[in-house]
Amino acid sequence: MRQISLKLKLTLLYTFFMILLTCVALAILFSLSSREVLASVQNKLERRVQESAEDVEYRSGRLHLGSDFYSVVQDVYLSLYEEDQYFLYGRLPYGFDQQPELMDGAVRTIRDNGREWYVYDMSYQVTEEYTVYIRGITSVTDAEEGFTVTLRFAFILLPLMVLATAVIGYRFTHRTLQPVRKITDTVQKIREDADLSRRIGLEEKKGQDEIHVLAETFDDMLSELETAFLREKQFTSDVSHELRTPISVILAQCNAILAGDSYTDEQKEEIALIERKARGMSDMISQLLFLSRADQGRQLLNIEEIDLSELTGMIVEEEQMLAKEEGRSVRIEAQIEPGILAQADETLYIRMVTNLISNALRYSREGGTVEVSLERQAGEIAGRVTDHGIGISKEALPHIWERFFRADSSRTEKGHSGLGLSMVKWIAQAHGGNVYAESEEGEGSTFIFQFPEKQVKGEK
Fold first, then answer.
1. Tens digit of pLDDT for each residue in 383-394?
2. β-strand 331-336 against 369-377: which pairing, if any?
3. What is the CA angle 95-98-102, rounded to 5?
C-alpha cells in the first residue's frame, strides 16, 4: 500500500481540525442564535404593542385610531378589544382563527393550523372608566423558517469552506515543506552523481526557522565530508605515487636475481613468489592512480573511431591464451557482431573488457565456459560477459562497484584488489553509458555494458 506523503498528512490534519472547530463554533452559534431569535421576536412584539398605545385616543365619546395601528410593522398584527373580549378594530393574521382569552402583560404561545404564534395582550385605560386591550400577534413559525433558511445556507457553505480550507492548507503545507523537498532533491542528486560539492543553499531569511537551520547543518556537514574525501583522494594519490618507485625497484631486483645463477632453485621459487606479489601490488597501484585521476577529473579520454568488433575479438583471443598459460581449462565463447564502429578510447575500452573477462575466468569452474557477446541494440552498443561460476549473493550484488569490496573470502585469490569493477563502471560512464550486473549465487554472473554508438564527448 502506498504510503501517504507528509504533505498530504499535514493537509488532512489541518483540514480535520479546521472543520471540527468550524462545526463546534456553528453548533454553539446556532444554539445561541435560536434562543436569541425567539427572544428578539418576543421583544419586538411587546415593544410594538406598547408603542401602539399612542395611536389609541378617545375623543367626543368615541375611540380614534391612528393609521399606523393598522400597519403590519415587523410582522406584528395589532387588534383592539373591549374588556369583555369584544373585537373593536385592527387586523388579524391569515391563518390565526382562535380567540384566546385576554391576559394582560403575558406573552403566550398559541398553536393554530399547524403554526405557532406569539400573542401579547396589554390593557390600556383610555379614560378613568373605560379600559381596552391591545393585542399583538406575530408568527413564531415565520421567524423559525427564516432561521432555518440561514441554517441551510450555512450547511451549503460548509462543503465550500471545507474545500477552501483543504486547498489553503495544502498550499500552505506545500510552501512550508518546499525547503524539505529541496533538501531531499539535493541529497538524491548527491547519491546519484557522488558530487559532494552540491549544497542545499536555502535563501537567507531573517529569523530562520528550524528547517533553515537543518539545511545549514546539512550544508556544513557536506562541506566537512567534501574536505575529508578530498584529503582521502589526495592521500591515495600521494601514497600511490610514492609506492611506485620502491615497487619498481623490487621488481627489477627480482628479475635480475631470477636471471642469474647465484641462487638455488628453492631460493628462486621464493623470489618468484615475491615478484608475483610485487607485480600484484604494482597493478593495484596503477589502478589506484587511474581512479585517483578519474576522481580529480584528470583522466582524459583519447576519443577516436575504432572497430569494436575486431578489438573485442583480439581481447578474447589474448585472454584465452593467458588462461591456457595459467593451466586453466576454461573456454571463452565469443558471439561478436561484425563491423561495429564507435567513437571511444581504445586503451580504456581494452581495460574495461579485459577486466570483465578476467573476472569471469577467475570465478569460473574448471572445464566451464565464459560467454562474450557484442551487438548493436536500438542505437546503442551492448556487450555481455557471462560466467557460470560461483555467482554473487543478492546482498553483495549492489556493492560490487565499490572500491575494495569483496563479497567473500573466496573472491580474494590471485591478487584480486577489488578495484577492477570500479574502473569498469567509470570507463562505461565516461563513454556516456553504464554497466550492470545480473547474478544468482551458485549459478554464475552476467555483466552488461552499454554506451551510445554515436560519438561521445571527451578530450583528446
1. 999 999 888 888
2. parallel
3. 130
